[in-house]
Amino acid sequence: MPNTKSAIRRMRSTERRRVRNRAVKTKLHRLEKTYLAAVTGAKKEEARTALQTVTSALDKAAKGGVLHRAAVNRKKSRLALRLNKLQ
Q1: Domains of the chain
Q2: How far apart are CA 52 and CA 75, in angstroms?
Q3: pLDDT, tens digit, for every residue of 11-54?
């Protein structure tokens, strides 16, 4: 248990951040899964729209500090490569 007022405040804010980060990451995993399903199913148009959705969500996660910008860029690049291999 925290011993100081500031530690109590930090505990509350950390919990709020943890819940938000987890929700965002869960959403990202779900979106990526639908994208990969479209790619493996060779559905080009569906995969293209899913890639736009995933890319947008990844950028928002980086903007909010949930994920690091470099990690997001690397992920977007790898996802785009999979779509390009399909075409």
Answers
A1: 5-86 (1.20.58.110)
A2: 13
A3: 999 999 999 999 999 999 999 999 999 999 989 999 999 999 99
